[in-house]
Design brief:
The protein has three helices and 13 strands. The protein is α+β, with helices and mostly antiparallel strands and 184 residues long.
């Protein structure tokens, strides 16, 4: 699980974080600076496969831009995250700046690992709903599972899911359909 870097009551901002002079991966959630662990090979494999599937769809249809970690998404000054994949629709392209994405992307993907399950399934899910991320995907490479959640009235509802095999679709990437076996 990610750990708080400082125990004192300091509230971290994106600018504080940006000025850190080290090569560690961090996120800021509600003003707390958290260290993010390195990704394992299953995580990297799934992230790459999912990026390949989504990026070809996004590029063919000129829907916007898809990015992969590490990339900062600055939701506000006290909430900076590094999701595994980030989609910004063409109509929101102004959010993309050189240093980071500043604002709320349309779709975020988190792939859980043993150290990030609670953070991704609960803390970040609540955070993303609070900020209005329209679609949130939670992948579990160890269990070969993927859930696609859509935001309705400020809360996420399960749109679809699959384990090992099964068709998945997206509301945000309308028309996208793929089988989870494509991830393996």
């Amino acid at each position: 699980m990610a750990t708080a870097v400082e125990k004192q009551a300091r509230r971290w901002t994106y600018e504080d974080y940006y000025r850190l002079n080290d090569e560690q991966r961090y996120e800021i959630i509600d003003g707390s600076l958290l260290m993010a662990p390195a990704l394992d090979t299953w995580h990297q494999d799934w992230s790459g496969n999912l990026f390949r599937i989504l990026n070809s769809y996004v590029l063919e249809r000129k829907l916007g831009k898809l990015f992969f970690a590490p990339l900062d998404v600055v939701l506000d000054q006290e909430n900076t995250v590094q999701p595994d994949l980030v989609f910004v629709a063409a109509e929101n392209i102004r959010l993309i700046q050189r240093r980071a994405i500043f604002g709320v992307p349309d779709l975020l993907v988190e792939l859980v690992s043993p150290s990030s399950v609670h953070r991704d399934r609960y803390v970040k899910k609540d955070l993303y709903a609070r900020f209005g991320v329209k679609e949130y995907w939670i992948g579990d490479p160890a269990n070969k599972a993927l859930e696609i959640l859509t935001l309705k009235q400020g809360r996420y509802e399960l749109h679809c899911s699959a384990e090992e095999k099964g068709k998945l679709t997206s509301v945000i990437l309308a028309g996208l359909e793929f089988d989870l076996t494509e991830m393996q």
